[in-house]
Amino acid sequence: MHGIEGLIVRVETDSYPGTPSLVLIGLPDRSLNESKDRVRSAIVNSGFMLPAGHLLVNLAPAEVRKEGPSFDLPIALALLAYDGQVPAKPLAEFIMLGELALDGTLRAVSGTLPMLIAAKRAGITRAIVPLPNRAEAALIPGIETYAVPELAEAVAVVLGNGAKFRVVPGAAAPAHEDGGDDFADVRGQIVAKRALEIAAAGGHNVILIGPPGCGKTMLARRMPSILPPMTPDESLDVTSIYSIAGLLGSEPHIVHRRPFRAPHHTSSRIALVGGGSTPRPGEVTLASRGVLYLDEIAEFPRSTLEVLRQPLEDGTVTIARAAGTCTFPARFSLVASMNPCPCGNRGERNADCRCDDAAVERYRGRISGPLLDRIDLHVNVVRVPYGELAAAQQSEPSAAIRARVVAARKRQWARNRTVNAHLRGGDLRAHAALDAPSSALLEGVMQRERLSARSFDRIVRVARTIADLAGAERLAREHVAEALLYRRS
């Protein structure tokens, strides 16, 4: 794996007289160097002979660092082919991956799905994978895949005797779809639900500000239920990311539900955006095509939050290391929540706030202005009165809200070929032109509130989404007025 993309590696073997040994070259990492001992034991314990002499294994291309145990199987088969125990010509037709146990058993490896996708794109039509990865391999049609339990069976496949190990495409277990969280369970909170509907329709980011126990987390967890269903390409992208992270479980399946990730406020910067000596995806990538929820965002270290600027602006994360540069997808909707003050009671009726103005400013100052500027909707959430909590009538269900969101997205796609939150420059001016009343209203507010140019663009994008939800072709003053409400929390 290179980032989230599969990279084809060629395993070459040779030997020359000398003290029996096995040497790996081609920039293997420490965990890969340990495969030498696993391969030796697996070959002998599977009933084969280890080639004699000083054995040399090269992993090409040599300038790319290799890591992980997935090279065990191709190294073992390449050594057997060099010694003539396996025919080399049919072996060259396969791509293979798998970790070997000392007795020759094959163990599952992460990233099988994106690696097979890379093989298919490279024109390779045959593959050998570990039996535990069978369900994941079945997700890729158009490639002849064999899932084997042991090294000996992998040899049988190369010899043409492995028909019973052939994977049938589409045989993977279907995704389990449960009812999930629904907005029908939310009492009151009309303004907050409206803001989340706008955010879902236009791909906007939103922050919920309110006292403890008012329902901020409950609202955020229901955000995926009103997002449009994922397209097949989106599902495959998300499934590939989860395959790399090892999050598909024991019965891999195509991921159909929008991701919802909620990292703890003690998470590090690397955990949030990815990284490490060999870059791995972080929470922003795992939330791609879905929702990233930062509960109590003011409790996150400021330095951690600042790394979100690039993902929020560009939809990608670029991580540079000595081993190379990787770009991960990070196109998610951010939903954040926080209290209005350290004690949480500021602005609440019949509640005593124990925080002075200086404490409130310090608390809110934990989130930088540039980061807040990148959040489109700022929403005040209040406590729900007893009468609404005790009411027997359910609120509007997620299905009804999702229908409006899907209709608004279709209008955006037909007009923009993207969601409103991603409109830039001339496209924004062309598709969200302001009439005279709207322009006058926005000009007055910007001068009075001293809003930035970024705020201007985001207000116009939100207004365009509000107009799409209303089925309006052009922006009107009421659309801009509602959008302005969400910049004055």
Task: Describe this entry's structure for a reader.
With 489 residues, this protein is of the alpha/beta class. It folds into 3 domains: 10-165, Ribosomal Protein S5, domain 2; 183-397, Rossmann fold, CATH 3.40.50; 423-489, no CATH class. It has helices spanning 30-33, 35-45, 72-82, 88-91, 112-121, 134-137, 151-158, 190-202, 216-221, 232-245, 269-273, 283-286, 302-306, 309-314, 357-364, 369-373, 386-389, 398-416, 425-431, 436-449, 453-469, 477-485; strands at residues 10-16, 21-25, 54-60, 94-96, 99-100, 106-107, 126-130, 144-148, 206-209, 260-261, 274-275, 280-281, 291-294, 316-321, 324-329, 333-338, 377-380. Strands 10-13-16-9-17 form a 5-stranded parallel sheet. It has a 3-stranded mixed sheet with strand order 1-3-2, with helices on one face. Helix 6 links the parallel strand 7 (126-130) and strand 8. Helix 20 (436-449) runs parallel beside helix 22 (477-485). It starts with 9 loop residues before the first strand and ends with a helix.
CATH topology of the largest domain: Rossmann fold
- What structural category characterises the helix and strand content? alpha/beta
Largest sheet: 5 strands, parallel
Instruction: State the end-to-end distance.
Output: 44 Å
CATH C-level label of the largest domain: Alpha Beta
Task: Give the domain tally.
Answer: 3
- Average pLDDT value? 89
Q: Could you give the count of β-strands?
A: 17
Helix segment tally: 22
Question: Strand content of the residues, in percent?
Answer: 5-15%
Kindly provide the radius of gyration, computed on alpha-carbon positions and rounded to a whole number of angstroms. 27 Å
Sheet with most strands: strand arrangement: 10-13-16-9-17
Percent of residues in helices: 25-40%
Catalogue the unreliable spans: 171-178
* CATH homology superfamily name of the largest domain: P-loop containing nucleotide triphosphate hydrolases
The CATH architecture term of the largest domain is 3-Layer(aba) Sandwich
Q: What is the global morphology?
A: elongated
